[in-house]
Amino acid sequence: MTIPPNKGSQNLTRFQKQFYTIAHRGASAYYPENTFSAFRAAVEMNADMIELDVLLSKDNIPVVFHDEKLDMKTSGSGYVRDFTLKELKLLDAGSWFDPKFKDERISTLREILEYAKNKILVNIEIKTEAVTEKEEGGIVELVLSVIKELDMENEVIISSFDYRVFNRIIKSNSRSKLALLFEPLQSKGRDPLKLVSDYSVDAFNM
């Protein structure tokens, strides 16, 4: 993660280091990715930051899960968006990694942020699959709401490959930090430095 030099400290209260140890989807080499155990282990390993992925459940609850479909990483089958939170909580989210993690469950964003508060920084990736043209009540608004309610705007950075996410966060006047995810094959020839400037992001991930 690179922080552009033009960003002042007033916007990055807890983001002042030059290099960060970031636990991608938690301590995912040792625990099932994006699970509570993986994030707890990252804290215990003294990581600077955890990275997690967010999608919406059928009943519009931000949940921490990477894949659009449940099939590879849970005991369920189908799209995350087609299951209510109650239904998602019934699924085994750990046995795919090791049978000893059979009791792992999908967490909500709120659950992970409540645990992380004052312990570790959090990089929230809003998945492109969850972003729709709906602005009111969409995933961006719901994620921002959880962050604000927990008073964690200075402990969180929001990242995405989807530029609509940045437009909506900017329009919301949120104080949350933004990180542009850039993949050359997906960028359609766009200049990454111009994108950083256009969206006034706080960090750049490549």
- The parts where pLDDT drops under 50 for at least 5 residues are 5-12
Could you say what the CATH architecture of the domain at 21-160 is?
A: Alpha-Beta Barrel
- Cα distance spanning the termini: 8 Å
CATH class designation of the domain at 21-160:
Alpha Beta
User: Measured on Cα atoms, how large is the radius of gyration?
Assistant: 17 Å
Estimate the helix proportion, in percent: 10-25%
Biggest beta-sheet profile: 8 strands, mixed
In CATH terms, the superfamily of the domain at 21-160 is: Phosphatidylinositol (PI) phosphodiesterase
What is the mean predicted local confidence, pLDDT?
Answer: 88
Counted by DSSP, the helix tally is 6
> H/E series, N to C?
EHEEHEHEHEHEHE
Global structural class: alpha/beta
Do you know the CATH topology of the domain at 21-160?
TIM Barrel
Overview of the molecule:
- This protein has a domain at 21-160: Alpha-Beta Barrel (TIM Barrel), CATH 3.20.20.
- Strands 1, 2, 3, 4, 5, 6, 7 and 8 form an 8-stranded mixed sheet that branches.
- The chain has 206 residues and is α/β, with parallel strands linked by helices.
- The protein is 24% helix and 17% strand.
- The chain is built from 6 helices and 8 strands, in the order βαββαβαβαβαβαβ.
